[in-house]
TrEMBL record:
This is NADPH-dependent 1-acyldihydroxyacetone phosphate reductase. One of its GO terms (molecular function) is oxidoreductase activity. It comes from the Eukaryota. Keywords: Membrane, Oxidoreductase, Transmembrane, Transmembrane helix. The chain crosses the membrane at residues 121-141. Gene3D superfamilies: NAD(P)-binding Rossmann-like Domain. InterPro entries: NAD(P)-bd_dom_sf (IPR036291), Sc_DH/Rdtase_CS (IPR020904), SDR_fam (IPR002347). GO terms for cellular component: endoplasmic reticulum. Belongs to the short-chain dehydrogenases/reductases (SDR) family. It holds the Pfam family adh_short.
Length: 152
């Protein structure tokens, strides 16, 4: 604030726009971060501070691998057993073919942050386009889409 310049970068997720099944807590935490960023962006602008929300799509990381392993350790798995295929698909979807390597995402984010006027919103990677479209779709269509794709 004293320098009257700078950029705060918060990493949310594209899933915050159109949360699907089996990702409620994750999507909610990212949506909260998006809301915080939106508020800070307006509050800090008069101090010369930019706030950018990064909303990655599917990005290769250890998150998907560690999430899948947790299903095998869950005690209440019996309630979700019939949804196993969809649950595992949800945790592994960002790790599959076409997902963005973390290094590629990082380079794109850094290039965007270093611009003279960094954008307030930066979405990049697998599924970012489809989830952006689903954000504007009627809820009945979004629900139908997820039931069809995620088999729930």
């Amino acid at each position: 604030m004293e320098r009257r310049k700078g950029t705060i970068v918060n990493v949310g997720s594209i899933t915050a726009l159109a949360p699907g099944p089996w990702a409620g807590v994750y999507s909610a935490s990212k949506a909260a971060l998006h809301a915080l960023s939106d508020s800070l962006r307006v509050e800090l602008k008069s101090f010369g501070i930019n706030v950018m929300t990064v909303a990655p799509g599917g990005t290769k990381s250890n998150l998907g691998n560690s999430s899948a392993a947790k299903y095998d350790q869950t005690h209440d798995w019996k309630y979700y057993k019939k949804y196993e295929e969809g649950l595992r698909a949800r945790t592994e979807i960002s790790q599959g073919p076409g997902s963005t390597p973390a290094e590629e995402l990082a380079k794109k984010v850094v290039a965007s942050v270093l611009k003279k006027n960094p954008p307030a919103w930066f979405a990049y990677g697998q599924f970012s386009a489809i989830l952006s479209v689903l954000y504007y779709a009627p809820l009945w269509f979004r629900d139908y889409f997820y039931r069809l794709v995620m088999k729930c």
